Amino acid sequence: MLILSRLACYEMIELLDDPRIDDGAEPGFARVLERIGEVENQLEIHMYVWRNDAIGNEIGEAVLAAAERGVRVLIIKDLGARLFERTEMNRKPFFPGEVSALQRAKYSIVGRTLPDSLVEDDRDWQLGAAVLAHPNVTLRQVEHTHSKFYVFDERILITGSINIEDRHRGYRDYMVEVCGEEEVGRFRDRLAWGVAYDPSRPMDFLVNADRRFEIKPALIELLGRSRERIYIEMAYIGDPDISRGIIDASRRGVEVVILFSRAANIGNDINYHTLQQVWKECEPKVFLSDKMIHSKLMFFDDETVVLGSANLSVFSMQKAVELDLIVRGVPAFLDAVRLAGAHRVGEGQAVARREDLPGYNRPLAMLQQFHQKAFG
């Protein structure tokens, strides 16, 4: 993770990630808790997974304390993530809720495609229920919102790829803090489609929402314009158009460097199926990390960074509400990302030949891809 540091040249962005810290999420969680402790009037949380574990309860307690001191709290929580909350780790979402027989059947089927990660504990739902019952807290549960962000008093935004769950400790991830009412206002305008994406800005927001998907075409354009090097640090892949853009860039002489999990927490088979297909048509430089790569980051020609919640999967590119930042022309920020990437690649193992990639289950890969297309 890169160390927390205010960029004096452009006082709106802080990257919560320090390559010297093995605990990938701890600086981000610490900053979120600090900001929740400081918030005065309004707190908004958009989250995919919020698990009933240690960090889930710590953030829940901070939210309840904020509500107690008069802060109005809006939580927008993805419904589909219950599948992972109820089939992985301690199998407990933070917020209590009924599960239908049809949902239980779906969870049982899809759960068989996921690695066994069971963690036993005796946690109950009392804290989650207390948060929901507080008059200053509003919970909206929606479908296909994979974005992860916090807004504090409409003047600070923290966003990136970290869910609220313990297992992110030790993952490779990023969170970014954006400071200033003007920038948070810009973020609101972009979410509401009130203003168009502006490629001339040093920083802007790319959004998938309301059945409009602008992240994928933006990435394809950047892939097509890259001249020298593309660095990809990505949890989940599989969108065929993005794969084609990577292949085409490599074929025209662009160096493509991919940092990948040796064993992803989910979707490992579709990940390796896709990587095998890409490598059949071009020659990327692939590095495998023993740590889970949960990042969603692409770095084009050492000039433009795109990072946030969007994977290069069918789900993220074609179905889910997602939020990415695009940053260019901010040297200190770009240097920080470059340092983090170099450190992570240095920790990984280079794969010399496509045949040396780990094996995968092709039928399971097809099932995982079908699940993304059909259900998200």
Could you describe the 3D structure shown?
- The structure is a single chain.
- This protein is an alpha+beta fold.
- It folds into two domains: 13-184, 2-Layer Sandwich (Endonuclease, Chain A); 199-374, Endonuclease, Chain A.
- The chain has twelve helices and 16 strands.
- It has helices at residues 26-38, 54-68, 82-87, 101-111, 126-133, 181-191, 215-225, 240-251, 268-281, 314-318, 331-347, 362-374; strands spanning 13-15, 42-47, 72-78, 137-142, 149-152, 156-160, 175-179, 203-209, 212-213, 229-234, 255-261, 285-289, 296-300, 304-308, 322-328, 349-351.
- It is globular, with a radius of gyration of 20 Å.
- The chain starts with 12 loop residues before the first strand and ends with a helix.
Query: How do the strands line up in the largest sheet?
Result: 9-8-15-14-13-10-11-12-16
Individual helix count: 12
In terms of structural class, how would the helical and strand content be classed? Answer: alpha+beta
What is the gyration radius calculated from CA atoms? Answer: 20 Å
Note poorly predicted spans: 1-11
General form: globular
Q: Which CATH class of the largest domain applies here?
A: Alpha Beta
